[in-house]
Structures are given as structure tokens and as C-alpha cells.
Amino acid sequence: MTRAADGPRVLIVEDEPTLAENLYGYLERQGMAPDAAYDGHGALALLRGSAFDVVVLDLGLPGLGGLDVLRAMRRDPGLWRPVLVLTARERLEDKLLAFELGAEDYLVKPFSLAEVAARLRVLARRGRGGESDPLVHGDLRYDPQAQAVTLAGRPLALPRKSVLLLAALMRSAGDLATHARLTAALWPDGPPSDRALHDQVHLLRRRLRAARGPDIVAEPGRGWRLAGPGHGAVPADCPVPGESKRPAGRDVDGGGDAA
Ligand code: CA
Fold it and tell me: Is 55 a residue whose pLDDT tops 50?
């Protein structure tokens, strides 16, 4: 492996030799430092033994499949790396499952090598962010190293995007997090749709309420903030400062088309 490059260290997990070679050669010419595994067990062995900034993961692999590799990487904090899933599977359910399991990004074959490289750079920057101190908001704690959230000391299992959103809200320490800032935290290349951020806020708010965590308060037209520590789940008929009374059974988060 060429180590002269100081670009991202990329683990390519791909069982098609020609494709793996093409990716390897292209990424190397782009100044990255690639390595390759041809099956799932080989990928996990390399992850345990070497430092990588980002992983390109094929789903259809012999033996241990790509989704199983992703599960293993998300169970073991020591194996956490940003993952770009690369696959011939283009069914929406496959994509959603990959995201639910914690993939950061997804490309369907055939793809452009230049696009793979561009997406890997974005993910590698995020993975190298250097954030290491836990974020704390009342009983809520986010450990960036382990990518894990706890509430009152108990693990709170959340989809990856919810974790990113929660971390971005916690970084604002109860102050307003603008629509633009949250969007950038979740989708460095831009959101998949205008409603995507609202949908993610709804999802995280429901999860936090179910766990009796802090509420997410909308500041219409601007963004959102986490309610102060100790508020717990806010009853639907209890208005929060900065938010007009919430109609029963419906979330209000007019947060920010203008933000
Ligand atoms: Ca394959």
C-alpha cells in the first residue's frame, strides 16, 4: 500500500476484483491511501488491525455480507468508521436498512469513480473531525468516540441520523440551532428533500419523548433547540417558552424554511 499519500485512508470492501482494482487505482491517483478486502471477515480483520478514515462497503459479499459487516462495525465502538455503501441493490428497503444500521452514504452501481472519491472525502473529513469530549445536556450524554447516546445512564438506541441531529442540537447547548446548521450536520452534500430535516426532527422528538428525554422546541422560521435539562417529556398541552401552544397530537416545527 502506498503511504506517501496523506489523503484519507480508505478501506475498499468489494469482492469483484476488477471493480476493486479500479477503485483502488483511482483513489490512489486521487492522493488517497486505499487498502482492499474481498470479503466480510477480511474487512473486519483489517479494521481491527489498521487505522482507516472511511470504508467503502459492497453489500453482496461472500460469507459475511456487507450488512453484517456494518452491524459489527456499529456494535463495536472501536470499529466505528464512516461507511459509504456501494451496491447493485437499488431497492429502497435495502437503502433504508443500510441507513438504519448506520451507513452514512449510499451509491448504486454503476457509479462514477469521481463521485465515489468526492463522497469519501466528505465522509473522511467528518470521521476525522477530532471531536472527543462527550456532550452533556441534563441527563442526556453523547459520547462522540463511541457514537453512543445515554439518558440517565441508560443507552438510548437511535438511528444514525438521529444521533447526528441530537449531537448538533447538543452542541448548541440549548441555544437555537439553525435550519442551515442542522442540515449541514446531517447532509454535507445537501438534504435529499425540503422536508428531510423536518422529518428527522419529528423522528428524534418522538424518540426523546418516548424515553422521557428533553423536548425539541421549534422556533418557527429559524430552527430548533433542546429544551432545558430537567424538563423531561413535555405534555402536549403545556406550552414551552418560545413555542406557541402545540395542538394535541400534532408536532409543530415550522422550523425554518427561512433559516
Ligand atoms: Ca459484490
Answer: yes
Residues by chain with Cβ below 5 Å of ion ligand 1: 15, 58, 60
Q: Where in the chain is the domain with CATH 3.40.50.2300?
A: 9-128
- Other beta carbons less than 10 A from residue 212's beta carbon: 12
CA of 104 to the centre of ligand 1 (A): 19
CA of 58 to the centre of ligand 1 (A): 6
CATH architecture assigned to 9-128: 3-Layer(aba) Sandwich (3.40)
pTM: 0.52
Q: What's the rounded Cα separation, in Å, for the pair 259 and 242?
A: 16
Answer whether 204's CB lies under 8 Å from 197's CB: no
257 CA to middle of ligand 1, Å?
Answer: 41
Residues 192-206 have pLDDT tens digits of: 898 999 999 999 999
Q: What is the mean pLDDT of the chain?
A: 82
Q: Report the separation in Å between the CA atom of 22 and the middle of ligand 1, taken as the mean of its atom positions.
A: 14
* Residue 8: Cβ within 10 Å count: 24
How many angstroms separate the alpha carbon of residue 59 from the centre of ligand 1?
Answer: 6
**Portions of the chain given CATH number 1.10.10.10:** 135-226
The Å distance, Cα 90 to ligand 1 centre, comes to 13
Coil, helix or strand for 91?
coil
Fold that domain 135-226 belongs to in CATH? Arc Repressor Mutant, subunit A (1.10.10)
